[in-house]
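hi!! sorry for the late reply, been swamped w classes. u asked for the two structures so here they r. pasted raw, havent cleaned anything up. first the sequence of the first protein and right below it the tokens
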Amino acid sequence: MTEQVMAAIDGSQFSEEVCDYAAWASLVLQAPLTFLHVNDNHLPPQERNLSGNIGLGSREQLLAELASLDEQRAKVAQEQGRLMLKEAKERAIENSVSDPASRQRNGTLVETLEELQGEIRLLVMGKRGETAHQDSGHLGSNLERTIRTLHRPILMVTGAFKRPEKVMLAFDNSKTTRKGVEMLARSPLFDGIPVHVVIVGAETGEHRSQLDWALKTLHEAGHEAEGAIRAGEVEATLRAYQEEQDIDLLVMGAYGHSRIRHLLVGSTTTEMLRKTTIPVLLLR
């Protein structure tokens, strides 16, 4: 099965940005682009109080009418999804993507993506979905569950498309971020883009050795790269470096697997995603 760039769209405020970043990634990676829309039939139904002094026949009639309304809602949702996918494909074609595909599924987004992840080279999603509160500090629950479930790179989009000109890798010498360095070194997604490797921690010989390895790997692949070791709280330190260096894309490892690593790293990941104003490429 051909691995592709897959863009999850749902009519949220980020859908256009998801389309644009997905089109950019598809072109640069020379990978097929597929737009995905999932009609979530698992949303909890509205509470229906059918008690009271109505007769059995009336109650059965009401149930039938409610069932008919549910069916109509499902048809409307399906048509809305079809139109969304059509507009997304047209937008991608305007951005020079040839023959983008689309898929519409019923179910939950996370379960659908888990089923399709063998086909995914890169998943592009918005920071929040259509049903999430629009507060800029809020992180969509679908995004968080997807990151924890999928074992594919996920590009989280936060705003209008801007072709990346500087990339920052938050490096902690974990297996995931070492793979991230190697991925950055060989991926056409970052050709010609300067890479900043940042370790948050004390200036020690071990950290300096780790940073030197990362920079050497990137330099040998032909990348312009520089690094820094900064002490401080992880999220605030990375955000300060991003603003100082005018970074426009962040690469970092996602949630860890073990319970201890989840407690230590998971909260940092969530905090970074909640507060960031630039796209984040999450690695597993």
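now the second protein. again sequence first, tokens right under
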Amino acid sequence: MSSVCIQVINPNTSRGMTETIGAAARAVAAPGTEILAVCPEEGVPSIEGHFDEAIAAVGVLEQIKKGRQQGVDGHVIACFGDPGLLAARELAQGPVIGIAEAAMHMATLVATRFSIVTTLPRTLIIARHLLHQYGFHDHCAALHAIDLPVLALEDGSGLAQEKVRARCIQALKEDGCGAIVLGCGGMATLAQELTRELHVPVIDGVSAAVKMVESLVALGLSTSKHGDLAFPENKALSGKFQALNPF
């Protein structure tokens, strides 16, 4: 058996993007770490706003419960909005890391200021909210959008990937940043190539989150069950939410 099993959750329903995210996770996983890449069976095909995140959060919780029942050691939420992160931590036993949170933390370890490159302009406000929530607003030099939808990263044309590259180059020229954070799980496989080409740290949150979960597991640290992240109160859930009952 593998010494560590990490469940990597793509909160949208795209199987292709789930495979991309899983490949990026496996590329950095330590020997003996098993990556279980999953996505909800129902929900939204891509996450590009608050409405999408609200729907996706339910799918995340469903997968968290499944992973907990399967005995995984930790979980990664592989969407840059980190949908349902705190609720997932309530439901989970092991550590749960969101890729935006992970990427921002990693960026501050290798640069004093970083820029973010993401997909649609409407998602920039979500990234700004997270910067404030996680305490990284003063570390972020600027945010950029390639102005293409999330699933353009999976259409095989290469246009979205080239726009990501161009925006990274622009950020380095204009922002005074020392690192780039890729603001979408679908960009996960681009980080290493861009790091080599641009000679600066380009950080993918999927990879960063996997290494953080591995570290927490190795240190014997799990999600605190004291205080607000304790398991949800035992109460009767109705309708389709009955399956989420943690007890």
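hope this helps!! also noticed smth abt the second:
The first strand starts at residue 4 and ends at 9.
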